[in-house]
């Protein structure tokens, strides 16, 4: 499958921070992002077969408990208001948006914070490299996700893409 054509646009809050990650910080970021993406994917997946219902129910419950523990830990760090939502283009390897504030420089290593679910005030933090930055339009190449996080992210993007296609089909 050609993943380069998979792109979705979602109105979500996005933040970025210029940050070079050492091995320990990258491992911690990946672990948190994997947990969040796994929970989002499980909570967002519809059941295809009735026989899978009980197993899927327990998987979703487990993911929710893991996420609640993670959110509790995050809440101990303090509550901050969410940034304003804006159109963000999301792909398996690229994130692109119109920056309203300070614009990162091409070549910068950043950590993106994507608020993918309105019900979860927790950003999905992904490492990236800025590949384009002109007139406030910024593109970032996701980097160093690791195999599991990359798979979870691609599943989420693919599901969103399929929903967009389904929504464009005429009813009936």
Give a written overview of the molecule.
It is a single chain. This protein has 172 residues and is α+β, with helices and mostly antiparallel strands. It has one domain (6-168): Beta Barrel (Thrombin, subunit H). The chain is 39% helix and 26% strand. It has helices at residues 23-44, 53-75, 147-168; strands at residues 8-18, 85-90, 94-98, 109-114, 124-134, 137-142. β5 and β6 (137-142) form a beta hairpin. α1 (23-44) crosses α2 (53-75) and α1 (23-44) runs parallel beside α3.
How would you summarize what this structure contains?
With 172 residues, this protein is an alpha+beta fold.
Compile the SSE list and pairings.
Layout: E1 8-18, H1 23-44, H2 53-75, E2 85-90, E3 94-98, E4 109-114, E5 124-134, E6 137-142, H3 147-168
Antiparallel strand pairs: 1-2, 1-4, 2-3, 3-6, 4-5, 5-6
Notable traits:
single chain, 172 residues, alpha+beta, Thrombin, subunit H, 6-stranded antiparallel barrel, 6 strands
């Amino acid at each position: 499958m050609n993943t380069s054509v998979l792109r979705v646009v979602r109105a979500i809050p996005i933040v970025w921070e210029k940050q070079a990650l050492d091995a320990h910080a990258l491992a911690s970021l990946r672990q948190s992002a994997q947990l969040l993406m796994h929970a989002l994917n499980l909570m967002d997946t519809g059941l295809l077969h009735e026989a899978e219902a009980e197993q899927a129910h327990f998987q979703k419950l487990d993911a929710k408990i893991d996420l609640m523990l993670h959110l509790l830990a995050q809440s101990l760090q303090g509550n901050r208001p969410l940034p304003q939502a804006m159109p963000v283009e999301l792909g398996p390897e690229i994130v692109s948006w119109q920056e309203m504030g300070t614009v990162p420089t091409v070549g910068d290593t950043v950590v993106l914070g994507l608020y993918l679910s309105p019900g979860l005030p927790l950003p999905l933090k992904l490492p990236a490299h800025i590949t384009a930055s002109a007139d406030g339009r910024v593109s970032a190449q996701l980097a160093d996700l690791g195999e599991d996080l990359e798979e979870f992210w691609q599943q989420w993007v693919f599901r969103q893409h399929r929903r967009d296609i389904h929504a464009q089909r005429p009813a009936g």
